[in-house]
Amino acid sequence: MQTNETIIGIDLGTTNSLAATVFDHGAEALRESGGGAIIPSVLTRQDGRWTVGEEARQLRTRAPERTVYSVKRLMAQDIESLREEILRLPYTVKQAQRGLVKVHIGAESFTPQELSAEILRAVKRRAEAALRQPIAKAVITVPAFFDDAQRQATRDAGRIAGLEVVRIINEPTAAAIAYGLDQKRKGIVAVYDLGGGTFDISILQLSGAVFKVLATHGDTHLGGDDFDALIAEELKRHVLAAHPEARLDGALASSLLRKTAELIKIDLSRSLETEYTLELPDQKLTFAGRFTADRVNELISPLVQQTLNSCHEALKAAGKRPEDIDDVVMVGGSSRVPLVRKRVQALFGRGPNIAINPDEVVAIGAGIQGHLLAGGRRDYVLLDVIPLSLGIETLGGTFSKLITANSTIPAEASEEFTTYVDNQTGIDINIYQGEREFVKDCRNLGRFRLKGVPPMPAGLPRVKVTFHVDTNGIVNVGAVEQRSGQEASIEVIPSHGLTNDEMERIMDEAVEHAIEDLNQRQLVEFRNMAEAVFRGIDKVWDDTEALLTPLEREEIRKQMDVVRQHAGQSDPVALKREMDRLGDLTRPVADVIISKAALTELRRFYEETR
Ligand code: AMP
User: Fold this and answer.
1) Is 333 close to ligand 1, i.e. is its CB under 6 Å away?
2) Which residue ranges form the domains of the chain, and what is each CATH number?
3) Are 217 and 317 in contact (CB under 8 A)?
4) Atom of ligand 1 nearest to the CA of 193
5) pLDDT tens, position by position, 391-437
6) Which residues are annotated as catalytic?
7) pLDDT of 447-478, one tens digit each?
8) Which of 215, 290, 405, 434 has fewest C-beta within 10 Å?
9) From the CA of 384, how far away is ligand 1's center (Å)?
10) 411 CB-near residues (< 8 Å, 6+ apart)
11) Whose CA is nearest to atom 18 of ligand 1?
12) What is the reported pTM?
């Protein structure tokens, strides 16, 4: 459905930028071949040339005076309003004509528009490479609170980059468009956008496919980076408690603490507990510890509360109550934090839209808007089916699918599982998405542990696992051990951020490997079965002396060796054949042992009832 004159959508962000457009199957972010869509909004000046994106971001600590970031904060601002901001920035910002500012690097100076244009050039180049065609037009997004001068500056940046800016649209509007909310006749939409360093909430009113911004509120210095800072403080306390001599205030230690903190935070958005290791090579110190989601929630709760206070302010300014909101849309990487989603849901009394990758949702909405402006149609389906199967890991790394691909949402499915080891009191539930038979070939979505199961012999616990996918595509996975009533659950979000190519590759691979996977899976199942049979035989071996001739016992031993040999090879059919043979040889024992057990039971019964 590529129209002659493609108009791409661009999210020109404070920390990251990216582009998107509409293909036959729907809207998608534009990626480097085999790579990501996101380009860090960072630029470094080197030998009279700019380096933009990931490479520049890496240079941020090494060449701070030549590396520019957060340009968006400078757009159409005068030096007075930037006083505080400038104190936080390591590069030089000075007053220029008409009260505006310029960034100084060595003897050169640049307007924020020129710097933004460099970022836009990088985005344009990536889009051209992805689409294999020149791009001349774009829709660019800006925060809802941008004034006319800031919007004009953004237009100018586009022009400098060689792009005709066909339209400037609000970021929250773009996010709402991505979810197809513009196709509803009317309604009130709240867009909650929590990124790495900024937060804003917008209340939009939709009437006849046009979104009007009723109110916005936010904090230009609040985001996931602040969560990391709090977790890093706690890490520091952990380390110092064990190693009072550690020096943790230097630049290297601080940056390692921050990095570890971010990893912990991201891991805990998919699980309830995590382990970490922190290495300080210069101090020859390695520290390992654990972090729980509960503790992270405690730490970040006041910051999350601040965002909710902003939501109340915005609602008040819009003259609305939480129950007036028809849809809530989540934007920004930090909207993945479970506590954030939970509290937003509690505030508005409804599950937020989170199914589209929150880093890409604004660009995708802008891409759809560009496509419509270029005369394209909007007749592709949005996310109403589950694109890839969902399930859990079972013994031997096999993938047990509970909900298959293309099921319509909402969907629910449950299945019972058991243990393979005696006295297992904790059971790990590992959640995956994919089409292959083994979890190593699928994508991990999250995990949790069902604890407190009373010790029982293997095979006795009855663990019922339930998957529930709601209309927003959020997956809730619960596990309950039916005999003891112990239960646990977690909420995860499947990846919808897959490109069409990725989806096709996953599907093709599934077909290509179907037979091989099936054989492998059978092999694992038969090996597990063989292990169980061996354990059973070992348990009763001494009893068989009275029941079998030495020759029969010898034959069983020999056949066990044959089975063992086949278990080490890769032919499931041969393994099964030898196991059946072993079954035939041990059948008389099994019969006698079962009747012996039954006799013992009967005897006990008579004794007790006599
Ligand atoms: P953005 O500015 O929208 O790119 O968001 C970046 C922020 O999102 C950073 O603070 C990241 O640490 C955070 N983030 C990204 N992925 C996750 C995740 N899975 N869980 C929690 N935070 C995340």
Assistant:
1) yes
2) 7-222+302-383 (3.30.420.40), 224-300 (3.90.640.10), 390-500 (2.60.34.10), 514-609 (1.20.1270.10)
3) yes
4) 3
5) 999 888 999 999 987 677 778 999 998 888 888 888 899 999 888 88
6) 11, 72, 171, 193
7) 889 988 888 888 888 899 999 987 666 788 99
8) 290
9) 25
10) 386, 403, 467, 468, 469
11) 266
12) 0.72
